Amino acid sequence: MDYITVREAAEKWNISLRLAQKFCTEGRIPGAQKFGSTWAIPAGADRPEDLRRKKKEPTVLLPVQTQSFSMMPLMNTSFPPGQCRETVEAMADGPQKDMAWAEYYYFSAQAERAAQAAEPYLDSADLGLRLSACWIYGYANLTTGQIRKARRALEAVHRTLAEGENLSPSLRAAVSFVAAAAAVLLHLPLPEGLPSTREFLPLLPPGLRAFALYVQAHYLYLQEDYAKSVGMAEAALAMGRKHIPFLPSTSTWRR
């Protein structure tokens, strides 16, 4: 059987690359197979029906699913230094593994592949996947100069933060982390209504907590509070450095 890529299928069916990827992840293309982080589609496969047109519903963020919340799965997975890719490959197939690949691509300087892997989950009903996708998609597109696409992701984060009153404390902590990181690392004013770091930091899982400490250190540096900045960076380094090979000083993964 002959196979074509997702991009070739999108061109063949005259649809967006994102929609073609969505058809794959939802299992709506018979015979489509995933190899690593890429999909192979049977050359003779018919285009699935676009359910968005059938239902004629407006494009809105889907309701938040609060069960099994998990954000940035690779960042929150312990692995020995030098075993990042092997760790992702060993994960069970599914959305969490897809997002782990997006993280891997972003932190290994493959911005275009990171954005492509994250894009199908920008409107996910799973809040953890949605926030992860927005974070990676936004920064990956900033790296490649796609400002309009980056702004779309960051605006989605701000909307979620504005709706955060009905979220559980752990979910609101994750939303606050993403909003704070976006503002600090882009040198923008912090969003209105953002809780203090002391409020949401203890509620984050270890991997995100270490990165949040780095973001706080960067914020203190921008405020010229250098002593506290150094202390915060040292605290981040002390958090499981042997198990989570993440370097706050450079915000890169060891591959």
Question: Could you write a compact summary of the structure shown?
Answer:
With 255 residues, the chain is mainly alpha-helical. 52% of the residues lie in helices and 5% in strands. It has twelve helices and five strands.
Would you kindly provide a written description of the structure presented here, covering whatever features stand out?
Helices cover about 50% and strands about 5% of the residues. The C terminus is likely disordered. A hairpin with a 4-residue loop joins strand 4 and strand 5. By secondary structure, the protein is mainly α. It contains 12 helices and 5 strands. The strands form 2 sheets. It has a 3-stranded antiparallel beta sheet with strand order 1-3-2. The longest helix has 17 residues. The protein has 2 domains: about 40 residues; about 170 residues, Serine Threonine Protein Phosphatase 5, Tetratricopeptide repeat, CATH 1.25.40.
Features:
disordered C terminus, 2 domains, single chain, Serine Threonine Protein Phosphatase 5, Tetratricopeptide repeat, two-stranded antiparallel ribbon, elongated, 255 residues
